[in-house]
């Protein structure tokens, strides 16, 4: 009887530790409850495993539970854990249904803190399905529930909510709102000092970097990386390390950037985390490219590409193709650069990702300005159109750099659609001819509304010649 009472007290302590975000403490308790066949213990064990991204053990424990035998409180907790499990496996719709069920039960139980936690995960499901506005409304609703909850578990859930709101507001360009939310999150999650604390630090570091506060950003990102390596949590680690490497490169600390990436790469390879490993090789390629070590950049990008084929990550594949295009352009292999950047643009268009498409266009422009200035300027205009709403200083600097380089060349296209050849700085004959042909053909097709015969009449050439030129220039 005494053993049963002690075990029951330990289950209560385990639940309290989880609810307050003390997951390391909870993880240390689990071995003492291995012989306990109670369904609630299985649910709590699954929650701890989900926190540490031990997804398969979590799934197995939840699969052993018969929900029809659960009481209302255990059932609500079960549905919440199962919803989290489906979120981790990117099954957004099913996760949403389960989380809505958990929230309904918590409403009936008047369990405000648990309901707020359910609304956090339900918001994440909505966000992953592209409904960021709905997610933000759910998180604000959850915050309101915690207004009078002055407890450790209330602080933990509120800290997680502030992190979600801060990350979303940063993504949507509301910098000062994001800054306030993320500072609040870091303060509230200090006791947890684990997965969510590190993610909040990482988001705050990204915000500071976007505002040019690189030294403060690097300090926070280093700390976040150390925590995530210790906790062996893959996706957040890859996110934080990618941002940290970019900040260190911006500061000119290339060796530190490479060291940071290798530290995370080792951890991710030990985890067998293919997506994170691919992203680390992509980050190395970016560092090498910034150092103008083209051969190593290309090798790292090709390794990253192999990982994208394994995990079928189209967004990462597009990013790597952009890097391969840039390395080919540095080698002056214009054909290879155009092929890689064209592939990147096609993938981005299929994903409806304006940022990736814009970057593909921008670096394609840089790759082709020496051989086709007019096409380069068209691509720059398209990149500016796609990227103008991002409010990312680093991207803005890249647009300015590529645009200045293109406009400093010997052939210029003016805003009022006039092509200018500077007789004092003569361009290459073949480049000039191709640029002029492209300019004339494009304007003839526009004036003829796409009619090949009329376009040929305007230019004094045959319809067949117009057709061949249009195919040559991909117009």
Describe the fold and architecture:
The chain has 475 residues and is mostly helical. Helices cover 77% and strands 1% of the residues. It has a two-stranded antiparallel sheet with strand order 1-2. α4 packs antiparallel against α5, α5 runs antiparallel to α6 and α13 runs parallel beside α15.
Indicate the topology.
Blueprint: H1 2-19, H2 23-29, H3 39-51, H4 55-63, H5 72-88, H6 92-108, H7 112-128, H8 132-145, H9 152-171, H10 175-188, H11 195-210, H12 214-231, H13 234-250, H14 254-271, H15 274-290, H16 294-311, H17 314-330, H18 334-351, H19 354-368, H20 373-387, H21 393-407, E1 411-413, E2 419-421, H22 429-447, H23 452-459, H24 463-473
Helix pairs in contact: 1-2, 1-3, 3-4, 3-5, 4-5, 5-6, 5-7, 6-7, 7-8, 7-9, 8-9, 9-10, 9-11, 10-11, 11-12, 11-13, 12-13, 13-14, 13-15, 14-15, 15-16, 15-17, 16-17, 17-18, 17-19, 18-19, 19-20, 19-21, 20-21, 22-23, 22-24, 23-24
Number of strands: 2
Question: Helix-strand pattern, N to C?
Answer: HHHHHHHHHHHHHHHHHHHHHEEHHH
Supply Rg: 27 Å
Question: Could you list the spans in which at least 5 consecutive residues all have pLDDT below 50?
Answer: none
CATH topology of the domain at 1-148: Serine Threonine Protein Phosphatase 5, Tetratricopeptide repeat
Q: Quote the beta fraction.
A: under 5%
Mean pLDDT, as a whole number?
Answer: 88
| CATH class division of the domain at 1-148 | Mainly Alpha
Could you give the distance between the termini? 83 Å
Helical coverage, percent range: over 70%
The largest β sheet comes out as: 2 strands, antiparallel
Count of alpha/pi helices: 24
Shape-level CATH architecture of the domain at 1-148: Alpha Horseshoe
The H-level CATH homologous superfamily of the domain at 1-148, spelled out, is Tetratricopeptide repeat domain
């Amino acid at each position: 009887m005494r053993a049963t009472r002690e075990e029951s007290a330990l289950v209560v302590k385990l639940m309290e530790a989880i609810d307050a975000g003390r997951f390391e403490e909870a993880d240390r308790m689990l071995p003492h409850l291995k012989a306990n066949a109670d369904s609630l213990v299985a649910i709590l064990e699954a929650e701890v495993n989900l926190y540490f991204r031990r997804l398969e053990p979590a799934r197995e424990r939840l699969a052993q539970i018969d929900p029809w035998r659960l009481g209302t409180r255990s059932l609500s907790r079960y549905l919440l854990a199962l919803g989290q499990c489906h979120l981790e496996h990117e099954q957004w719709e099913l996760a949403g249904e389960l989380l809505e069920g958990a929230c309904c039960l918590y409403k009936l139980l008047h369990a405000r803190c648990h309901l707020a936690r359910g609304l956090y995960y339900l918001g994440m499901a909505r966000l992953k399905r592209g409904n960021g506005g709905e997610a933000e409304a759910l998180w604000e609703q959850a915050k309101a529930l915690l207004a009078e909850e002055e407890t450790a578990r209330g602080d933990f859930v509120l800290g997680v909510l502030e992190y979600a709101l801060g990350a979303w507001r940063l993504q949507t360009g509301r910098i000062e709102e994001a800054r306030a939310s993320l500072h609040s999150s870091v303060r509230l999650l200090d006791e947890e000092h684990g997965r969510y604390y590190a993610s909040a630090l990482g988001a705050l570091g990204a915000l500071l970097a976007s505002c040019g506060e690189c030294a403060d950003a690097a300090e926070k990102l280093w700390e976040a990386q150390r925590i995530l390596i210790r906790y062996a949590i893959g996706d957040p680690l890859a996110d934080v390390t990618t941002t940290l490497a970019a900040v260190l490169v911006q500061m000119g600390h290339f060796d530190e950037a490479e060291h940071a990436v290798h530290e995370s790469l080792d951890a991710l390879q030990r985890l067998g985390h293919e997506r994170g490993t691919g992203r680390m090789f992509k980050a190395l390629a970016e560092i090498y490219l910034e150092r103008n070590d083209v051969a190593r950049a290309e090798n790292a990008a090709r390794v990253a590409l192999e990982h994208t084929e394994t995990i079928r990550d189209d967004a990462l594949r597009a990013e790597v193709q952009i890097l391969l295009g840039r390395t080919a352009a540095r080698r002056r292999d214009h054909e290879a650069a155009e092929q890689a950047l064209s592939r990147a643009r096609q993938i981005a268009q299929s994903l409806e990702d304006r940022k990736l498409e814009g970057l593909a266009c921008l670096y394609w422009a840089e790759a082709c300005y020496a051989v086709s200035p007019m096409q380069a300027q068209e691509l720059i205009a398209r990149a500016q159109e796609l990227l103008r709403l991002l409010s990312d200083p680093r991207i803005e600097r890249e647009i300015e750099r590529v645009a200045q380089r293109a406009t400093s060349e010997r052939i210029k296209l003016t805003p009022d659609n006039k092509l200018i050849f500077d007789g004092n700085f003569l361009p290459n004959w073949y480049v000039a001819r191709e640029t002029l042909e492209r300019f004339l053909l494009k304007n003839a097709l526009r004036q003829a509304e796409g009619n090949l015969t009329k376009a040929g009449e305007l230019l004094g050439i045959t319809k067949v010649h117009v057709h061949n030129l249009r195919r040559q220039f991909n117009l």
